[in-house]
């Protein structure tokens, strides 16, 4: 359904990308321009759905979930390859025979969407236009993985104590109750915890463990720069490689835990695999910080929560729509 909707809504842009269109620039001069799909901001699950790829598979490369922890970038999942597989599937079986088509699609690690919205958009390639998204791919990954590894390695009581006694500093958030029991953590909290985490765990875990966490932090901070040179791209890749060189220390410390507190001895982490494509995306599409979802996530507050609070908690959706309509007028 989402592909059909996007296909309909974006059809004018596809046409403009094919034949061009006259548009005015900021100075009012008319320009003959084309509209290729340069970037699409999406979290991991949305990107999988839009690229036509099934779960446990990278939407940027040909890596499967068992290869997510590899210390190198796999071959990109190009548009031509995906479209070829879709044409082959359509030749093998009828797309409208859903059960059979889905079964055959899984053999190619596709999700069964046979008319992806970008199929007829000139020059579009999911391995290029799906850019890194700092809020979900980096900061959320930090909380879901890095921070949990640190909590498990140091101990929740100890790490909470260490955070609680940090000296107050202007501009830095305090965590008087620690971090292990935080709920509904936002991107702002992710960033605040990142400021402290290396110093907090420094003498409580093995040196290699600290090196691995610090390497990921270096990667994130470097990749968030507003301007990134070729030398910095090399440094970013080196930071990621340093993590891979020391990542076994995290498992050795018993810090990577799953359900029932059992140690996980693999690296089947989709967002870890996505980090391998950051430097190539920077070269293609520029600094990733411009593609962050911070602004769109903020709209959840300004366009949903605030209007909802101003109502009487009855018929929320119509009231929110009416509120937004009046605000625009």
TrEMBL record:
Pfam families associated with the record: Plavaka
Protein name per the record: Uncharacterized protein
The organism of origin for this protein: Collybia nuda
